[in-house]
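Long-time lurker. I teach an intro course on protein structure, and each term I like to show students one example going from raw sequence to a predicted 3D structure in token notation. This year I'd like something fresh instead of my usual example. Would anyone be willing to generate the tokens for the chain below so I can use it in lecture? Attribution to the forum is fine with me.
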Amino acid sequence: MTAITERDVPFEGTTIHLYEGGEGFPICLFHGSGTGAATLSNFRAILGPLASTFRVIAADLVGYGQSGLKPAEPYFDMAMWSRQVAHVIGLADAPRVGLIGHSLSGALVLKAAAICPAVAGVVTTGTMGVAAPRRHGSRGWVFPETQDQLLAQVRNTVTDPSLIDTAELDRRRAVLDRPGYRDYFTRMFDGQQESFIGASAVTAGELAAIRCPAILFHGNDDRSFAPEATSIPLARGIADADVVLLANCAHSVALERPERFLDIVTPFFRRCATAA
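-- Reply from a regular --
Happy to contribute to a lecture. Here you go:
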């Protein structure tokens, strides 16, 4: 399997941690905003396989994973994360790129596709992007005080709890235990959750401006955001968009159904790479 390397790049007074590998058509990946989330949380099962065919550039969002923290509030900052997406696209240094975004970053990559002519294709998984509430009973963005609370939060993203192993919990705990991070994360989501969901909304005008093809994946068992409330109405606003609903799958699509995801995404991005 193609090796994945890591490096940090400067960005707006902090740093972005990157995972890179492979050659050819570049695909930039961005993870979601779950507690302690990072690139490997969402994409560890697909980075290597994608890098065997494409050039992969995956970024931890600022405030997450091994990226640096935002120097000043607001820490939940869609405009800043959108600039981060644009910066990573620029690092690809290519005339055409593909984008993959999970959950919060699904909204970010859709917004990027609306304004960046270099985006040749966009894929989302369990995306946000509609000003609608979470499903009833969803735990939301709450800092876990105990390991059991963290385990419950992360298991909520999958139907198969065995996918959440000790290594994944240790990776998330390493993020959460960074000095000052508890306060940082708490202040990031200090307010009504509906306001953060609303801030991620992709407008009708942005959807209409997306001219590249799109695939919106969603697990039928997603306990955070229902496909009927997010992926399906978002796709209706895009000229060339397909929705893929996956059985036996919750929020973390690329982790829970990596083979099916790759079966669809690999030929999709091959077509994007060669489209006129």
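Some talking points for your students: The CA atoms of residues 38 and 208 lie 30 Å apart. The chain has a mean pLDDT of 94.
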